[in-house]
UniProtKB/TrEMBL annotation:
<dbReference type="InterPro" id="IPR013328">
    <property type="entry name" value="6PGD_dom2"/>
</dbReference>
<keyword id="KW-0311">Gluconate utilization</keyword>
<comment type="similarity">
    <text>Belongs to the 6-phosphogluconate dehydrogenase family.</text>
</comment>
<dbReference type="InterPro" id="IPR036291">
    <property type="entry name" value="NAD(P)-bd_dom_sf"/>
</dbReference>
<dbReference type="GO" id="GO:0050661">
    <property type="term" value="F:NADP binding"/>
</dbReference>
<dbReference type="GO" id="GO:0019521">
    <property type="term" value="P:D-gluconate metabolic process"/>
</dbReference>
<comment type="subunit">
    <text>Homodimer.</text>
</comment>
<feature type="domain" description="6-phosphogluconate dehydrogenase C-terminal">
    <location>
        <begin position="345"/>
        <end position="630"/>
    </location>
</feature>
<dbReference type="InterPro" id="IPR006183">
    <property type="entry name" value="Pgluconate_DH"/>
</dbReference>
<dbReference type="GO" id="GO:0005524">
    <property type="term" value="F:ATP binding"/>
</dbReference>
<dbReference type="InterPro" id="IPR006114">
    <property type="entry name" value="6PGDH_C"/>
</dbReference>
<dbReference type="GO" id="GO:0046316">
    <property type="term" value="F:gluconokinase activity"/>
</dbReference>
<protein>
    <recommendedName>
        <fullName>6-phosphogluconate dehydrogenase, decarboxylating</fullName>
        <ecNumber>1.1.1.44</ecNumber>
    </recommendedName>
</protein>
<dbReference type="Pfam" id="PF03446">
    <property type="entry name" value="NAD_binding_2"/>
</dbReference>
<dbReference type="InterPro" id="IPR027417">
    <property type="entry name" value="P-loop_NTPase"/>
</dbReference>
<keyword id="KW-0067">ATP-binding</keyword>
<comment type="function">
    <text>Catalyzes the oxidative decarboxylation of 6-phosphogluconate to ribulose 5-phosphate and CO(2), with concomitant reduction of NADP to NADPH.</text>
</comment>
Length: 633
């Protein structure tokens, strides 16, 4: 928000502006300091400025207002006597610029001006200013015939009653971080959280109170008051649990909303639910946007990757806010873009999380292999990961290296964490979606199932006592270059699998997904950001709908890695250490690059027991045959 204090000379624009900037912790600027030298000389000689004199000055100010707003806001003292001048200064959206018109009677200001010294504006020109003045019919109007502290108090009171641009519903970890992110970017945001005795007590009130003096968060635990605080048409960002909760919240909100209002679902909702909600709300004239948000607590606060899907109209409304709070790519562009129609935004977020599952499990497998196969200390494994990450530049590899160094007393904390993980939501959804679309999802499915089997801890402990582990002596002489090559190979294949899911969905649902743009918004802010993701921007620009594994650059890399990949996977298995994602990646690669698969036997079996028919490789595709397979006796 940029605050402009306007009015004739002598009303206290500079004095009050400095006080306001200190209270709001925003930089202060005086428009007089931006006058060209010719204007200053003219005013100092007692000559009033003409409109042609003011044009270059207004142009300079308009450019700076846009810059100040992008940097978080500012307070500007500027006379802006005419409506044409004020329109010229409106270089940012109206709801991001607040006019504060300071005024009083001519005699009061004349008396003030008579006592001023050392200012180039002469009191003799005051009358011409009053003649020129066109009081605005909008903004905050303040009579300055009172003490300065009272003027400031009145301004602050009126600022606090300004309608909020965005309403954030749900103050969990992500909701709180996003609210702070928006406030830091100058977005006026109101916050709401339900109040339930002994369950959720004063969440919104306490959050706003924690930040008093830094940000002004209008807070609410009353839904009607929350909605009433929002400027129209309203923009409401939901940060609540996916599933039935979203429907319950929408059902509660709908009574207070009007045609043209917008709801943004920033949670991990299922893409089919998002498409359904958009269709239902459209009947009431309410816009709906499903926005996948990745980055965790830190990303939400500092800048996440955002994947919005829905109607273009909804994105045009919400995009300016989402792009403002998003992370920035290497060129300074927001890691946020319109994904496509219906539930495409949440589908892309689901695919992101699927790739994330695979990457996390792959790192965990190498950690486990090093820790229990090689008997390496967490410190040594951390050093290996850091060395690998000089090339990979993966956020997940980076945090894994940090995790391995954390101690509790004299012991490594990682050794005290129960080895049981669960999955819910996006990981399993990815697998289900792949089944519906007929797309192989080997690494992601393996990662989901690895979590599922880890969750049955007691069963695993019982089974361990029943079987002997193979000897691990052979792994001590393994080449570390092979280990790194195997890791890189599996990671590339995991990404290829994830993006192939996006390609299939785009074709099936006519979403026209831009894979290059999706890769770009995944280069910062999100969990799977890496140097490889930067490369994918160009790769998918060159070959937008082709499996990564057939791109020339990827082919050359994987040719170098395959021997190591197979060797490491085989030795790990032979030594008794499960590496499901590493092995699933190799199985997918071998299957994808095999001209002859085992499926001819499958087709023969199906035709034998169910007369399902089959195609022949010596006949045109599309011709089907059935055989009586029983031997002739």
């Amino acid at each position: 928000m940029v605050f402009i204090l306007s009015g004739v000379s002598g009303v206290g624009k500079t004095t009050i502006g400095l006080l306001l900037s200190a209270r709001l912790e925003l930089p202060f600027y005086d428009a007089d300091d931006f006058h060209p030298a010719g204007n200053v000389e003219k005013m100092a000689s007692g000559l009033p400025l003409q409109d042609e004199d003011r044009q270059p000055w207004l142009d300079i100010l308009a450019k700076n207002i846009k810059i100040w707003n992008e940097e978080g806001g500012a307070v500007l003292a500027c006379s802006a006597l005419k409506e044409t001048y004020r329109r010229k200064l409106q270089s940012i959206p109206e709801n991001e610029l607040q006019w504060i018109f300071l005024h009083s009677d001519y005699e009061v200001i004349l008396q003030r001006m008579s006592g001023r010294s050392g200012h180039y504006f002469k009191s003799t020109l005051l009358k011409s200013q009053y003649e020129t003045l066109e009081p605005p019919g909008y903004g905050i109007h303040i009579n300055v015939n009172k003490p300065e502290e009272n003027i400031l108090a009145e301004i602050m009171q009126k600022i606090q009653t300004i309608k909020s641009e965005v309403g954030l519903f749900g103050l969990g970890v992500m909701g709180k971080s996003l609210a702070l992110n928006m406030a830091t970017k100058g977005i006026h945001v109101a916050v709401y959280n339900r109040h339930v005795e002994k369950v959720e007590v004063d969440i919104a009130k306490d959050f706003a109170g924690e930040h008093t003096g830094i940000f002004n968060f209008p807070w609410f635990d009353d839904l009607a008051a929350f909605v009433d605080n929002l400027s129209q048409p309203r923009n409401i960002l939901l940060m609540v649990n996916a599933g039935k909760t979203v429907d319950i919240v929408i059902k509660g909100l709908i009574h207070f909303l009007e045609e043209g209002d917008l709801i943004i679902d920033g949670g991990n909702s299922h893409y089919k639910d998002t498409a359904r909600r958009e269709k239902e709300l459209a009947k009431k004239g309410i816009l709906f946007l499903g926005a996948g948000i990745s980055g965790g607590e830190e990303g939400a606060k500092k800048g996440p990757s955002i994947m919005p899907g829905g109607t273009r109209m909804a994105y045009d409304r919400a995009g300016k806010y989402l792009e403002k709070i998003a992370a920035r790519d290497s060129k300074g562009n927001p890691c946020c873009a319109f994904i496509g129609p219906q539930g495409s935004g949440h589908f892309v977020k689901m695919a992101h999380n699927g790739i994330e599952y695979g990457e996390m499990q792959l790192i965990a497998e190498f950690y486990h292999y090093f820790r229990f196969g090689y008997k390496f200390t967490p410190e040594k494994i951390s050093a290996i990961f850091l060395d690998w990450n000089k090339e990979i530049q993966s956020y997940l590899l980076e945090i894994s290296a940090d995790i391995l160094l954390k101690k509790e007393g004299e012991e490594f904390l990682i050794d005290k964490i129960l080895d049981a993980a669960k999955q819910k939501g996006t990981g399993g959804w990815s697998t289900n979606s792949a089944l519906e679309l007929g797309v192989p999802l080997d690494t992601i499915t393996a990662a989901v199932m690895a979590r599922n089997i880890s969750a049955i801890k007691e069963e695993r402990k019982t089974a361990e006592k029943l079987y002997e582990k193979p000897s691990a002596e052979t792994i001590q002489n393994q080449n570390f270059n092979d280990l790194f090559s195997a890791y890189k190979s599996a990671s590339i294949i995991n990404h290829a699998i994830g993006f192939s899911l996006l390609t299939a969905a785009s074709k099936e649902y006519n979403w026209e997904l831009n894979l290059s743009e999706i890769a770009r918004i995944w280069t910062n802010g999100c969990i799977i950001r890496s140097a490889f993701m930067e490369n994918l921007i160009k790769i998918f620009k060159d070959t937008p709908e082709t499996n990564l594994l057939v791109h020339p650059q990827i082919v050359e890399q994987l040719k170098d890695y395959q021997k190591s990949h197979r060797q490491v996977a085989g030795e790990a298995l032979g030594s008794g250490y499960p590496m499901p994602v590493l092995m699933a990646a190799q199985n997918y690669f071998l299957s994808y690059t095999s001209g002859q698969a085992a499926a001819n036997m499958i087709q023969a079996q199906r035709d034998y027991f169910g007369a399902h028919t089959y195609e022949r490789n010596d006949k045109p595709r599309g011709e089907f045959f059935h055989t009586d397979w029983k031997p002739d006796n």
